Amino acid sequence: MTCDGLGAVLLDMDGTVVDTEGLWWDACAEVAQGLGFALTPSDREALFGLPVEDAAAYLVGAGGLEDAGPREVEGMLTRAFTVRVEAGVTTLPGAVALLDSLGAAGVPAALVSASPRSVVDMVLETVGGFRLSVAAGDSPRNKPAPDPYLTAAGRLGVDPACCVAIEDSPAGVASARAAGCAVIVAGGAGAVPGDGVVPVPDGIVRVPSLESVDLALLRLLVSGRG
What we know:
226 residues; alpha/beta; Rossmann fold; DNA polymerase, domain 1; 2 domains; seven-stranded mixed sheet; 12% strand
């Protein structure tokens, strides 16, 4: 099919809608410390945007752990991250205004996160305006596989090619692209090269923040696609 309009906007959560990347790093650092080793700045880059199950596997490998399995570490990470999110999260600039404009225009928005359902539900108590949400475990595979974005588009009843995904991490960008969505990178210095409101490789658009995203840009990205 050819897109004759904007079908939906699918937004990542951590680092895109809410400022939780620092909370995630603190949780990872705390768990690593409890397991007997310290993380380094290079570990921070490697852990950026990883689903909790992949982060757990990374910590097991980084720490050379023989007695801790990935599932055990996954639970520790989820608990440490949840405690921090429970204390409160900050909505990133432009998020509320964008969701309001989508709602006024009748364009459905979905939250597509690699975080656990418990964390996503806590964030949804702070940020409204989403038609639905997809969390870890709601699709067969997590990011960077396309499943979360395919699941969101399917539940909304729209073609992924007529959707714009907004992301901030390499894993999220890979997931959205593999699903066939147009992609905007908001912030996320490690996601793709380039700065400003400019196209970057493979037709991805990068913006400094959600404040630079409006209906005109979103509609332009899906015009003629499909």
